[in-house]
């Protein structure tokens, strides 16, 4: 178990060779407040990492920086062996990294003016150049993987929250990412529906070898399906451990208090 | 109150001229609406640009056309621009240019309001799927913005259709010009201007009803409730005062 303030990869700038995603010394401020304070973080292929922590501790910002939705002031990011961000700035190889990363959001972000199929096939057709037939076949497979095959012609506005979130996962899978970043994707869902959605992620990891980085407060999922639990505090990784270590043998008082509070909730 | 004997026969006699004028009015309106709906997209995008100078130029254009009278814009393009450039622009073309420039300014503000109403998270979803800025605009932002702004766009188009009557002042033979000419020749102002008003009304009123329908439908879709009718604030909706 690593109780160091930050997860130590190797020396800064030399990511672990087995890592699919490796971030070194990420720093990001919002209005003078450090949200990421020299964070080192890596994800191996086929690994499920659960990030927990209080609101504002920097966990969502870490995901958004890896996804490219926020630019850090400092830090390097390597994806699948290629440096895509150096000293905080995107490198010429940025698109190589972007192609490996998918993201699912708390508020689903399906496009309401399109049906499920159109939501899924827009990017594969425009970006990957798939024909309508190829894209539709891929959409059918992706929807089947998340248990939503029968809703392919539904409008996204006709779906429940859990169904929308599963469609959002399928949409991300359409681009064949190797790592899926999930930002509090179950926090707007009822517990049974949230469990269904998380079950989909566990199955994708098992069957597709997809790496998943999940920001969640669902401790049950974290303890059952996660390979790693990462606890964020004040923009730094305070604990990086297996679920068993993190939840049962951790001596970090802040993590203990956090886990207890979430359990009571 | 003076006694008035109506002579609708004069209107019947001039009807072919009025119809020809209506044709010109509809042509100007159609060309102006189509051009403005297209040109307003880049203006709205420029108005939201991260590049300050681009944003300022777009804003300057919009404010010039929003804050000066339509009639002055029309006269400036028909009379002043040839003096400045030495190129004479025919009345019909001047009318189309002035009305298009004016409507584009208002339409751009309506679009901008619609663009900004599309949740940023939906655009981020597009970014994560590697859609380019143009693809995000084309497939995510513009379709939703247009749907949301349909009532405002229709209102702007009704206003513009009525404003076409101003082109009669630069000798474009539109409906108003023909009505005015016939009224002057026959001394039957009441009949001809009433007829002109009726024709404008018959075209604008169904569009106005359509606007109300889309407003109700939009509100129902958003809230599940019918709208409470309130006077619209022009500065908030982009509708011309």
UniProtKB/TrEMBL annotation, chain A:
Gene Ontology terms, MF aspect: ABC-type amino acid transporter activity; ATP binding; ATP hydrolysis activity
Organism, scientific name: Kribbella caucasensis
Membrane topology, record value: Peripheral membrane protein
Keywords for the protein's UniProt record, in alphabetical order: Amino-acid transport, ATP-binding, Cell membrane, Membrane, Nucleotide-binding, Transport
Entries under Pfam families matching the protein: ABC_tran
Domain of life: Bacteria
Location(s), subcellular: Cell membrane
UniProt domain ABC transporter: residue ranges: 21-259
Stored InterPro entries: AAA+_ATPase, ABC_ATPase_HisP-typ, ABC_transporter-like_ATP-bd, ABC_transporter-like_CS, MetN_ABC_transporter-like, P-loop_NTPase
Protein name: Polar amino acid transport system ATP-binding protein
GO cellular component terms given for this protein: plasma membrane
TrEMBL record, chain B:
InterPro entries recorded: AA_ABC_transptr_permease_3TM (IPR010065), ArtM/GltK/GlnP/TcyL/YhdX-like (IPR043429), MetI-like (IPR000515), MetI-like_sf (IPR035906)
Family membership: Belongs to the binding-protein-dependent transport system permease family. HisMQ subfamily.
GO CC aspect terms: ATP-binding cassette (ABC) transporter complex
Stretches assigned to the ABC transmembrane type-1 domain: 22-211
Pfam families named in the record: BPD_transp_1
SUPFAM superfamilies from the UniProt entry: MetI-like (SSF161098)
Protein name: Polar amino acid transport system permease protein
Regions crossing the membrane: 24-48, 192-214
Residues making up the signal peptide according to the UniProt record: none
Annotated membrane topology: Multi-pass membrane protein
The keyword Membrane belongs to this UniProt entry's keyword annotation: yes
Keywords: Amino-acid transport, Cell membrane, Membrane, Transmembrane, Transmembrane helix, Transport
GO biological process, one term: amino acid transport
The keyword Iron-sulfur is annotated on this UniProt entry: no
Cellular location(s): Cell membrane
GO molecular function: transmembrane transporter activity
């Amino acid at each position: 178990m690593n109780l160091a303030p930050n997860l130590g990869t190797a020396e800064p700038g030399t990511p672990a060779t087995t890592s699919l995603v490796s971030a070194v010394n990420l720093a990001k401020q919002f209005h003078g407040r450090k949200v990421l304070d020299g964070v080192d973080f890596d994800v191996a292929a086929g690994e499920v990492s659960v990030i927990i922590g209080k609101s504002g501790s920097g966990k969502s910002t870490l995901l958004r920086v890896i996804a490219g939705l926020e630019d850090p002031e400092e830090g390097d990011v390597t994806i699948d062996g290629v440096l895509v961000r150096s000293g905080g700035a995107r490198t010429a190889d940025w698109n190589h990294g972007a192609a490996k990363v998918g993201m699912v959001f708390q508020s689903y972000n399906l496009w309401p003016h399109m049906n499920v199929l159109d939501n899924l096939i827009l990017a594969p057709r425009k970006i990957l150049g798939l024909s309508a037939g190829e894209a539709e076949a891929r959409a059918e497979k992706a929807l089947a993987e998340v248990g939503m095959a029968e809703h392919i012609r539904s409008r996204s506005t006709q779906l429940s929250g859990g169904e929308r979130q599963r469609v959002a996962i399928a949409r991300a899978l359409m681009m064949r990412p190797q790592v899926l970043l999930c930002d509090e994707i179950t926090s707007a869902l009822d517990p049974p529906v949230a469990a269904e959605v998380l079950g989909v992620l566990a199955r994708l990891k098992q069957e597709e070898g997809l790496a998943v980085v999940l920001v969640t407060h669902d401790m049950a999922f974290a303890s059952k399906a996660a390979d790693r639990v990462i606890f964020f505090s004040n923009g730094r990784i305070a604990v990086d451990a297996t679920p068993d270590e993190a939840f049962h043998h951790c001596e970090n008082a802040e993590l203990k208090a956090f886990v207890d509070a979430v359990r009571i909730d | 109150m003076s006694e008035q004997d109506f002579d609708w026969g004069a209107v019947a006699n001039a009807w072919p001229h009025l119809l020809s004028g209506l044709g010109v009015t509809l042509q100007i309106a159609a060309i102006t609406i189509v051009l403005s709906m297209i040109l307003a997209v880049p203006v709205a995008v420029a108005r939201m640009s991260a590049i300050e100078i681009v944003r300022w130029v777009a804003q300057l254009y919009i404010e010039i056309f929003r804050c000066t009278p339509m009639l002055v814009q029309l006269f400036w393009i028909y009379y002043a621009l040839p003096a400045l450039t030495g190129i004479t622009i025919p009345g019909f073309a001047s009318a189309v240019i002035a009305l298009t420039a004016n409507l584009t300014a208002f339409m751009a503000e309506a679009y901008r309001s619609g663009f900004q109403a599309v949740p940023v998270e939906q655009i981020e979803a597009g970014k994560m799927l590697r859609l380019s800025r143009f693809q995000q605009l084309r497939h995510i932002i513009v379709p939703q913005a247009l749907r949301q702004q349909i009532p405002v766009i229709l209102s702007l188009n009704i206003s513009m259709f009525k404003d076409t009557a101003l082109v009669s002042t630069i000798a474009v033979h539109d409906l108003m010009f023909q009505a005015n000419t016939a009224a002057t020749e026959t001394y039957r102002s009441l009949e001809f201007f009433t007829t002109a008003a009726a024709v404008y009304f018959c075209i604008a009123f169904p569009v106005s009803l359509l606007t109300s329908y889309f407003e109700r439908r939009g509100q129902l879709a958003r809230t599940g409730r019918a709208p409470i009718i309130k006077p619209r604030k022009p500065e908030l909706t982009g509708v011309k005062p």
